[in-house]
Design a protein that fits this description.
The protein has 364 residues and is an alpha/beta fold. Helices cover 42% and strands 10% of the residues.
Length: 364
């Protein structure tokens, strides 16, 4: 791998870590929620027809363009050939993002410099550009098979919230951008993510974060899996930027773990209370998202890296955003609910999940 290629790939990796969402398959929620009405979109396939009463629908891009060699049954490990094909598609996607983002964000920058649009419009347009690039390039290079699990009320009646999510891979941001409409609905508010300020050392990452108005947090670069070391001096500016973003009509997204988790299969890393602080300050509830499977494509552990052992990912959007009583209650709930899904790709059993979501588990 030559220096230029490695540099571009590293830039994309940094972009992926800032948090940080092709039409996916949508699965019905557990039985104690209302029945989800499936979309009319159906799997396009020359070899089989999708039944009308199915509770999930697959990416048209996957069914049309992907090779049979990379389509093992869901949850099955890839063989060497399949892994190589998936890795090639993934790298092609990452490299294309490095090219597409500067090209597509340039017109937005020009409009802003000419004062045709204001700062808030520039940030909203830049966010939509990032989502558009992620979504369509995933269709062009369908290296992952995606599904989203979400309740209808989340899509039809979104409420202002502080969004929290686990951090399992350098790919997280790409999928959050690409799947945002499927996870939060077409009536969703624009969102700003908190990110590590060190990502600004890369021009691609810096471009997206600053154009979209994402909010930097200053902390030491001490490696994944090690304790986070934040600069307290940056907190005041971060809180000010967050207040302004909320005033401008944005939701806020934060990664409570603070860094990619090198062992997502074992649950979450220590959960920090920043999300609770922001929620209390803004008087907004917290709503949880869980990601699973991306670490099996690009693992945070550098010794594993782009192993591409599987190609299935899932995003779970939990209902019933809550106002937590204290930081410990939030941390325990987030670790139990999101940590389990991140590790196993499925929810806790229905009874235990409901107890965590409505706060009963914490009170007992």
């Amino acid at each position: 791998m030559n220096g230029k290629f490695r540099g571009l790939l590293l830039g994309a990796a940094l972009l992926g870590s800032c948090y940080g969402f092709s039409p996916p398959r949508v699965m019905s929620p557990p039985a104690y929620y209302k029945q989800h009405v499936p979309s009319a979109a159906k799997l396009l396939s020359s070899s089989a027809k999708q039944t009308r009463n199915t509770s999930l629908y697959s990416s048209a891009a996957v069914s049309v363009t992907e090779f049979q060699a990379v389509s093992p049954p869901e949850g099955k490990k890839l063989n060497k050939l399949q892994s190589a094909v998936v890795r090639t598609l993934m790298v092609a996607f990452i490299m294309s993002m490095c090219v597409a983002l500067p090209v597509t964000l340039f017109p937005v920058w020009v409009l802003y410099r000419l004062k045709i649009i204001n700062r808030v419009q520039k940030e909203m347009l830049s966010l939509r550009v990032g989502q558009f690039c992620s979504r369509w390039l995933m269709r062009l290079f369908p290296f992952a098979r995606k599904k989203v699990i979400v309740e209808p009320e989340t899509l039809t009646d979104p409420q202002p919230a502080i969004w929290v999510c686990n951090h399992i891979s350098m790919l997280d941001l790409f999928f959050v951008l690409a799947l945002d409409k499927k996870m939060r609905g077409k009536n969703r508010r624009p969102i700003k993510c908190l990110y590590w300020k060190g990502l600004e050392s890369n021009p691609i990452t810096c471009l997206l974060c600053k154009m979209a108005g994402f909010i930097p947090v200053d902390m030491s670069d001490n490696g994944n899996g090690n304790a986070n070391e934040y600069d307290p001096k940056s907190f005041k500016q971060m809180l000010r930027s967050t207040k302004n973003a909320i005033k401008d009509g944005f939701d806020i997204a934060i990664l409570p773990e603070g860094q990619p988790n090198p062992t997502p299969e074992n649950g979450l890393q220590p959960v920090f209370s920043g999300a609770f602080t922001l929620a209390k300050m803004s008087r907004r509830p917290i709503q949880m998202i869980a990601l699973h499977g991306l670490h099996k494509m690009w693992h945070p552990d550098e010794n594993i890296g782009m192993a591409c052992t599987e190609r299935d990912m899932a995003a779970r959007v939990y209902p019933s955003s809550r106002v937590y009583k204290d930081a410990e209650e939030f941390s325990s709930t987030f670790s139990a609910v999101v940590g389990h899904f991140g590790a196993h790709g499925k929810d806790l059993d229905d009874t235990e999940l409901q107890l965590w979501l409505d706060g009963t588990m914490w009170e007992t």
